[in-house]
Amino acid sequence: MRPVSVILLIFLSAPVMSGQSDSLRHKNDSLPDKFYLLQKVKRDGITMPEVEIKEVTIMAPPKTEKKSDLRKYDRLVYNIKRVYPYAIMVRLRLSQVNDELNNITDEKKRKEYIKNVEKDVFAEYEGDISQMTITQGRLLIKLIDRETQNTSYALIKQYRGKLSAAFWQGIARLFGTHLKDEYDAYGDDALIELIIREVDAGRL
């Protein structure tokens, strides 16, 4: 099994322990419910309600006439569709396990629950994930950071310890991958972000 496959399985089964570090915040349990805050703003002597909205970035689709570039783009789309669901699963699994552990106070039962989760995850995902390529593994590391707001290295260090994180970082480096890679939606990973938005919208 490729190292990235083992790393992903670790993510899927890793518990989010209560009292976790404030540096590890996950989208699904740190964002407030959607709401709009109206403010009174006076402009030209007239007071009007106003709501602050998030900045919207518009990116044009890639344009190229080279067949090689088109093939690379198509391959990137394929790889994103291949690994994106697993990045989402990592986020959801972390939240699910955290919710369960919040209801378990006995330390022995917590360890037993964690052990059962790990066993179930390996049985469910090992076969499929083991078929991922190194390129897909690199992409997955980026998308895990996108979904969880934490690098893969930080997650392993928090949930499996510093020694384990250093070990898997060493293995990843041998395969040209870096567990500390961060997702940059408006920089190096802008094209990936565009494709993901198209996938989410059902257009790809």
Percent strand equals 5-15%
- Rg over alpha carbons: 20 Å
Q: How much is the average pLDDT?
A: 76
Structural class assignment? mainly alpha
Shape: extended
* Helical percentage: 55-70%
Could you give the order of the helices and strands?
Answer: HHEEHHHHHH
Individual helix count: 8
Most strands sheet: 2 strands, antiparallel
Number of E-state strands: 2
Strands ordered across the widest β-sheet: 1-2
Unreliable stretches covering 5 or more consecutive residues: 15-33
Task: Write a concise keyword list for the protein shown above.
single chain; 204 residues; mainly alpha; 8 helices
Structural features, described:
- It is a single chain.
- 59% of the residues lie in helices and 6% in strands.
- It contains 8 helices and 2 strands.
- A two-stranded antiparallel ribbon has the order 1-2.
- A hairpin with a 2-residue loop joins strand 1 (38-43) and strand 2 (46-51).
- Helix 3 (67-101) crosses helix 5 (134-148), helix 3 packs across helix 8 (190-200) and helix 6 runs antiparallel to helix 7 (162-174).
Concise synopsis of the structure shown:
With 204 residues, this protein is mainly alpha-helical. Helices cover 59% and strands 6% of the residues.
